Amino acid sequence: MPAATQTDEKDEKTTIESALWERCAHIMDPELGRSVVDLGMIVGIDATDNQDGTWDVAVTVELTVPGCPLSDQISAQIHAAVSSYPTAVLIPHLEVGSMDEGKLKDLVADLKAQRRENPFNKPGIKTRIFAIASGKGGVGKSSVSANLAATFAALGYDTAAIDADIYGFSLPRLFGAHAQPTNLNGMLMPVTRWGVKLMSIGMFAGADRAILWRGPRLQRSLDQFLADVWWGEPDVLILDLAPGTGDMTISVAQALPNAELVVVTTPQPSASDVAVRSGLVSLQVPMHVRGVIENMSWYDHAGERLRIFGEGGGGRVSTHLTRALGYEVPLLAQLPLDPRIREDGEAGRPAVLDADGWLRDDGFADAFRDLATALMVPPRAMAS
User: pLDDT tens, 267-297?
Assistant: First the structure.
């Protein structure tokens, strides 16, 4: 082969490989939220001219752990980045393995060094944190949490949710999350379902046994969910609190003073009177009460709207908290009693979504869309 031809081929090889490194740099690891190139997952790109107008491209990939649950997704994106190269016909060949222990240890150390501690309590953090509370159980707090998180994700927000109800965890079932979090040398990757990054004690072996944690151990469980999980920097974090004003609510307030409390009640006085207490906890801890949601407000049957649990509970809670706290605590939403909410939730899909993961085209989804939109308005703007 003439020297000039060899030089031209070498130049084209260098151009192709450099361009592919750049294209792959835009592929993000879905769990870590960083480029697969920056994470060291792509360790080699080698283009070979087939002398027929095509090039074979060998890409060596090292994932974080063997059997990485998102291996196929990452591989598909790399394959697409190579095969869609615009100025030459490239045939991708991926060799997928996993990082050795030393490389993985260095990566985890680098990620932990960036975070060091609770990532949601840093100055300038963009994440809006909504702690969903109730005065008593049985008012649908977890269902509201799941559907609100799913709504934020469907609207395009990077969304995370923590099941902070250590004793009565429900989010894994409501989201159909059956996998355990991936463990990267002591750092956990949240499980993603319906676009929401999830963490719950219910995802771990033995979680079906009764849990009798209190005090420091309960605080430590929350610390681990916040600091030992790689969340990235989500737009929204939903916390499904335990009912009442116990240890976990206090722990959340201490760990996340920037959290905004949303109180869930049902219409009857026996629920709304107790719900007020969960809002009044903000007099003792540094949390702003953002508003009230009245759940199970009515049931539509044969063209008639039935108020099975009475009415006015959400308004009573809103009025009482506004008067007691000295700032407006609005009634944010009234949600219906609908058997589909239970049926879809028990089937592992938040009821606000259709089977394809899009927001339903009905009044129920519209109510959650309006709720999410209202919550994302900063409190200062609401006050003004």
Answer: 988 777 777 877 777 666 668 899 999 999 9
Structural domain of residue 349, as residue ranges? 119-383
- The answer on 166 and 312 residing in a single domain is yes
The pLDDT, as a whole number, for residue 56 is 93
Tell me the sheet residues that pair with 265.
294
Number of domains in the chain: 2
Half-sphere exposure of 297 (CA within 13 A, CB side): 17
Binding-site entries for ATP = 135-142
Instruction: Output the known binding site.
Output: 135-142
Res. 93: pLDDT tops 60: yes
Query: What is the rounded end-to-end Cα distance, in angstroms, of the chain?
Result: 76
- Rg of the chain, C-alpha, whole Å: 25
- Percent composition of the chain: helix, strand, coil (DSSP 3-state, to 5): 40, 25, 40
Greatest Cα pair distance, the chain, in angstroms, is 91
Q: Are residues 352 and 262 in the same domain?
A: yes
Whether pLDDT at 249 is above 90: no
In terms of domains, do 142 and 243 share one? yes
Where does residue 88 rank: exposed (0-12), middle (13-18), buried (19+ CB within 10 A)? middle
Output the pTM of the full model: 0.73
- Degrees, nearest 5: CA angle 223-118-276: 65
Specify whether 252 is located in the same domain as 151: yes
**Mind listing the pLDDT tens digit for each residue in 197-234?**
998 877 775 545 444 444 445 556 677 778 788 888 89
Q: Say how many residues make up the chain.
A: 384
Whole-number pLDDT of residue 381: 46
Q: Which of 64, 99, 134 corresponds to the end of one domain?
A: 99
What pLDDT sits at residue 117?
61
Do residues 364 and 237 share a domain? yes
Domain final residue, candidates 39, 67, 99: 99
Mean pLDDT of the chain: 83
pLDDT of res. 57: 94
Q: Is the separation of the CB atoms in 25 and 17 below 8 Å?
A: no
Same domain, 90 and 179: no
Residue 104 within a domain:
no
Does residue 114 belong to any structural domain of this protein? Answer: no
The one-letter amino acid code at 313 reads G
